[in-house]
Every structure is written in structure tokens, then in C-alpha cells.
Amino acid sequence: MKPEEVTRSRPLAPLTTLRAGGAAEQFYCARDREALASAAAYLHANEMEVTILGSGSNVLPSDRGVPGFTLLNRTSDIEVGPGGEVVADSGAAFQDLFLKTAQAGLAGFSYAVGIPGTVGGALASNAGAYRSCIAEFITGVEVVEDGVRSWIGPEDLQLSYRDSRLRRGDAGRCIVLRLRFQLEPGTPALIYDDARDYQRQRIGKQPPPASAGSFFKNVYDQGLADSLPGLPERLRASGVVPSGFLIEAVGLRGYRIGGAMLAERHANFILNVGRATASEIRSLAELAKARVADRFGTEIEEEVLYLGDWADWQSVGKP
Question: Which candidate in 110, 164, 214, 283 is catalytic?
Fold first, then answer.
């Protein structure tokens, strides 16, 4: 990482799918794995605050910006080996991981079609859909943690539903370089058929403007599921309550604060429809949380991560 490659006050909104938020105090783009590892080791050795940014599809930087050092991960290698072993850089597109493994006749990642994130982002949030998640296939993770480069097991990352320790605390002290997967052979026609079906479902549900995809996690609460009229039976049986169902039930579908709007098509999507600020987007999220808690006595939790300086943030909407 050369000094001339580091920029200051780099706007981050263009690097996020929500198209909102402030600037990185210091910024560096790592385009290969060794550059990422070297930068991580240097920043850890100098005890600098580190924020990792991939495709920007599940994050919202504060309007006040992101202090310390932001590392943009643009690594992209994916290697398919014998026996179904696959090694992918953390910056590789999750959808590219599907394409490369499907071409090799390996099943497991059909659900990744249409997910805009990176492999590392998918790991951090244990991304998944249609009864599957990335954690099922991971056998090893290469990291730089507190300046030391090593391979660790997936259990060390405390993976759970849409969560891992990479989302919590000082996440920048553990920077993921690449992941190792073990996949099983599949029938190519069936792999692609599944992918096309998942893609059709996504197109039917997801609105087109700038968003972060599903803003909130689903709620797992059998008692709540049993109490909700109109909840599809398959969800009731499994005790799953989509946050979008709850947000729609409290009358917020289509509600706006400034340039931020809860989508008409899918109430768990917050859209940037008019140069929304990060504060407007978060205010709308907080409103949804408050209304759902008041009505149903349950808290919905964000999938989206808030990055940077939110210390003095105040809601700009009505409670």
C-alpha cells in the first residue's frame, strides 16, 4: 500500500447500493489478495480503525462519514479444484461464485443468483435464501486477525442466522482474505433450473430503485406466527414471520421520510427514491422498528450494517 494510493475524504455513497452516506476519512482499494493482506497487516500493526467495504450492498455509512481507514475489497479470484473443493477471494462477487461452480457441475449456490454482494459480505451476514445459507459449505477461512495471517475454521466466526462476529464489535481486527468450500456434484440442468426459478421470484418481489435488499431480518417466533391472521401457512408452521409482513401490517408500506421510502411492492425494502440522506434512511428504519414493537411487542433487527460516526445522530422523522 503506497502513500499515493491512499485518498482522503473519499465519498462512499457511490460505492453503496443505497447511494447514501458520507465520506471515508482515509481510503484504499485492494485489487488482489496480497495487497489486501499487506494493507490489513499494516493497519493492524499501526492500531488504526479499519472498515471493510465490498460491493456496498448491505451497509449504510453515516452522513458524517466513516473515521479511520476504509479498505475497498476488489479481490476476485475463484478456483475450482478436484473433488468439489472451491477457494474464492472474499471480494469475488457471490453471483460469480455460483456461475463458476455451476459451470463445473457443482451444486449449492443456485440461490446466489441476483444477490449483489461479495463472498466476504455473504460470509459476514451468513447470507442465504430458500432454506440454504453460505455457512453450510464453508470448510476454512483465511484471515488477517490482529496482524497475523492464518486459516481458521468457520466455527471461529460464530456464524448464525444472518450474523457472525464479523458484524459485531471491532470487526476490522479480523479481515477475511478468502474462503474454502466443499460442494457436491449436481445435475447442471437442475442447477440452472433452480437458479432461474430463484431469479424469477426475486424479480417479482424486489423493487428496482436503489436499496440494500431486505433491510431487516425475519423474526423467528412461533407464538407470534400463530397469532397473525393472514400469515401463509408454510411460514406459520415453521414459526417464521417476515419483517415485511409486520411492517405492512402497521400501515407503513409506501411511507416516506424525505427521499427514503418503504417500498410498495415489498415493505422490507427501504428505497432511496430522491437523494435520501443516510439519516433519512435510518429514521425510516427506526420508525418501522418502533411501530412494529408497539403493535406486536417484538423487535425487528437490521440486516443492514450502519458504518461510521452515528454518535450524535438524531431521527429526522416522526415517532
Answer: 214
